[in-house]
Amino acid sequence: MLWRDGEFGVVLLPPGSREPKTLTGTGRALWQALARPMTAEELAAELAATFGTDAARVGTDIAPVLDELRSMGALVEVPAP
Amino acid sequence: MRPADVVAAVSGYGLPGSAPLPDQPVDQATWRGVLELATGDRVTPLLADAVADGALPTTARQHEQAVMAHEQTMRLCVLLERSLLDVTRELAGAGIGYRVLKGAGVAHLDYQSPAQRAFGDVDLLVPSAEYDRALGCLIDSGARRRYTEVRPGFDRRWGKGACLVLADGTEIDVHRTFVAGPFGLTIDLAELFRFTATVSIGGRELPVLDRESRFLHACFHASLGDRTPRLVALRDVAQMILTTDLDRDEALERARRWRADAVVARAIRLAWSRLGLETTPILEWASAHRPDRFQARALRAYTAPSRSYATQVVAGITAVPGVPEKVAYMRALLLAEPGHLAQRDGSYHRRIHRAWRAYGSTRSSR
Question: Could you give the count of Cα atoms lying within 13 Å of B176 in the half-sphere of its Cβ?
Answer without folding.
Answer: 23
